[in-house]
Amino acid sequence: MAVLLSIAAFFPATAARADNPIVQTIYTADPAPLVYNGRVYLYTGHDEDGSTYFTMKEWRVWSSTDMVNWTDHGSPLSVATFSWAKSDAWAGQTIYRNGKFYWYVPTTNRATGRMAIGVAVSDSPTGPFKDALGHPLVENGEIDPTVFIDDNGQAYLYWGNPHLWYVKLNADMISYSGSPTQISLTTAGFGTRTGDANRPTLFEEGPWVYKRNGLYYIVFAAKCCSEFIAYSTAPGPTGPWTYRGTIMPTQGSSFTNHPGVIDFQGGSYFFYHNGALPGGGGFTRSVAVEKFTYNADGTIPTINMTTTGAPQVGTLNPYVRQEAETIAWESGVETEPAGEGGMNVGWIENGDSIKVKGVAFGAGATSFDARVASATSGGKIELRRDGLNGTLMGTCDVPGTGGWQTWANVSCPVSGATGTHDLYLKFTGGSGYLFNVNWWRFNAAGA
Ligand code: FUB
Q: Is the pLDDT of residue 16 over 50?
């Protein structure tokens, strides 16, 4: 197993942590949430460790049913997926239509040296995605596509920095009708910027377009730098736009920000990024989320960044297989593709941990199973309630299995696992890497 230097390696263990940012194993940026089939899929970029520019090679996918425990689905799309692309896995968005998922992304065209918009397609929200065209969908040197399908079935792709463009997508979602059209950036539509004669309005980049109760919204990164998040509304998908003000003020140790807005299970959620992780900043960003409520007139309240994040929607069922890479908060671990499919947690050392929030044990669990692998001599998984030093519900011994991808099941008895609690998987053992975990499950009496 390769030794990766990562943020996780130096992130301190904390007993009681909030849940923003969403991902702690890597730096993430440019959130694009999608609700599909009762889950939120979160598409992000990936800022490389130690970046001093927007050094981004791949896009990543995460998902959650409860807004606090997020499953890592790895990287089903990268710059390398596009044979014509050279670099820059920047801010994109994925949408579902007719059984397929379309992911629109900006990346640099090797042939022209300019930013272009590519489109990738998959049968699954978690990929694998393939280049739908073999060439850019559209190219004018501008970035940050957002995609929207109106109630009448007409799809629109918007993008831009420094201008704002749209084009009408055909029903196949990989071609368009007419030519890219510039949306007029008026101060009435997009607010007034002072001090930059070339950019008289606040629109900077990162548009996010959607419709709610018949009103069209464009949320965007405003002013530079540092950016804040603002929005405008319109009676139709192409305007005329009216500037509505700030959603998220400039905050959070990153000079960019990037919005993504969804409704899920009756709540509204605002995704953004900041520099909140250790080592974080403008090129080492992290995606976070807040819950909010629209005002009665459809306007959006001011939303501030928190470390608390969104409240949990429901609970997590420990009596079905749960992926080890389903995490509310972690300390010290990494993830990687598992040889037997999906992802696994690895790079586990003594004292590392994973918190899984709001686990509904109900009447009580009697045993715990885990799928593990170890090329060394293994270690132990301590199952603790509500804190790293909380009540010990059980300890599972993990033996050496002969390889980091040589998987075996281990099982151990548990007690005191009743009601709903945060579960801490605390890993202990000797020095060096101990073992990997692919999945876990509790068993109830009689199961
Ligand atoms: O992540 C690279 C670029 O930074 C994005 O395309 C912009 O929206 C800004 O977040």
A: no
Q: Reply yes or no on whether 340 is catalytic.
A: no
189 phi and psi, to 5 degrees? -85, -35
Atom 2 of ligand 1: nearest residue by CA position: 90
Helix, strand, or coil (residue 10): helix
- Ligand 1 neighbourhood includes 205 CB (under 6 angstroms): yes
- Each residue's pLDDT tens digit, 52-65: 999 999 999 999 99
Q: What share of the chain is helix, strand, coil (3-state, %, to 5)?
A: 0, 50, 50
- Ligand 1 atom with the shortest distance to the CA of 143: 6
CA–CA gap between residue 336 and residue 322 (Å, rounded): 16
How close is the Cα of 73 to the center of ligand 1, in Å? 22
Any ligand 1 atom below 6 A from CB of 282: no
Check residue 144 and give its pLDDT: 98
- To the query of whether residue 139 is one of the catalytic residues in this protein, the response is no
Q: Could you tell me the distance, in angstroms and rounded to a whole number, from the CA of residue 143 to the centre of ligand 1?
A: 8
Global pTM value: 0.96
Query: Using CA atoms, how far apart are residues 386 and 375, in angstroms rounded to an integer?
Result: 31
Residues 294-303, mean pLDDT to the nearest whole number: 98
Question: Does the CA dihedral 78-81-82-86 come out positive or negative?
Answer: positive
- Residue 117: name the closest of 97, 88, 96, 95 by CA: 88
* 393 contacts 416 by C-beta, under 8 angstroms: yes
Residue identifier of the C-alpha nearest atom 1 of ligand 1: 90
Res. 5: pLDDT tops 50? no
Mutating to test ligand 1, I would choose from 53, 54, 58, 286 the residue with most ligand atoms within 8 A of its C-beta, which is 54
Closest CA relative to residue 71, chosen from 280, 338, 350, 420: 338
For the cut 80, the answer to whether the pLDDT of residue 440 exceeds it is yes
* Distance (Å, whole) CA 290 – CA 248: 11
